[in-house]
Here is the input.
Amino acid sequence: MPDQRPAPVGPVVPVTPEDEAPSLAASRAASALAAAETTHADAQAAYDAARLDLSATLADHDAALTRVDEVRALADAAVVTADASTKTLAALVRAMVQQSSDTTAFDALLGAQGEGDLLARLGSVDRLASLTGNISEIRDRVELDTARSNALQADFAAAQEAAAAFPVAAKQEALAAAELTLSQATAALAAAAENARIALAESAEASADRSAEATSQLAGVLGARLSNQGWATPAVGIINDGFGPRPDLPLPGVEPFHSGTDLGAACGTPIYAASAGTVIQTGQLGTYGNWILIDHGDGVNTGYAHIRDGATLVQAGDTVTAGQVIAGVGSTGASTGCHLHIEVRVDGTAIDPQPFFAAHGIDLGAG
Here is the structure.
């Protein structure tokens, strides 16, 4: 039947879990493993980021505590200095007020301390007397010392508040949560890796079984007869449409040039790989319906179109042998009845399949 050749699409062959080929199970296990690796990498990155964040917060918190200690020391010293300045000014004022009597001045300054250190007390009086002319300077000093003490006390309170504001506990909780997520991702990755290993082993074993079964089915099957050149009949059926231009289009919207040969056959009839090769595409392909494309090397590809839904037995990446059952005849895509559209491409260009197969020992439509 007529076909168009739109851009290929990805595999969309419908399958049910009980009908899945082991190779599909292995592919899904590999996808799950890749997803687990991505999740683990993300969890590792999040854990590393949380750990660095906590380390930075702790370092900043330690620096803030050091600042608190430093400011506390400065504030304490400033209190002492301001207190001393205030006491000095107070003593000087009292002495000046009591200048009417030396004894009074002495008592006001020195108190009733006895005569044991009289010379020292007299020296203090002399020093006090020398300061009487500089009372305004002393008053200024008291104001400066007091202001500095007040400022440092405020700085100390601010430093304490800043140190207390660091979210150390929140960062520790974030790190613990990231560590738990990483642990779970690590366990999931290990499980996915084991599942992938098992699925791959089962797929390899099942693939070997399928190859052996397909090979055994070739014996005595007319439709899968092999030539001495390693090619096989792609399907048992008569030719009902050939390669080349067609003036009458059986369906609207199809190309006027038929790029393959149609072999009429009942739905479900086996479709065989024309020769050994590698499956490079399966799935839906525009008017081709369900489709398989096999690469046989040296630029030669064979294509199989209109495959029955759910009857594709291979997938991209599989290797096949000549005559291996790869699908079942159907009527998907632009088709008016069950048949196989067999197509041969050389270096990407479709050629007439009949002379090509004949040159390789196979007569299409025979038998």
Q: What stands out?
A: Residues 306 and 332 are 5 Å apart (CA to CA). Residues 16-218 form one domain.
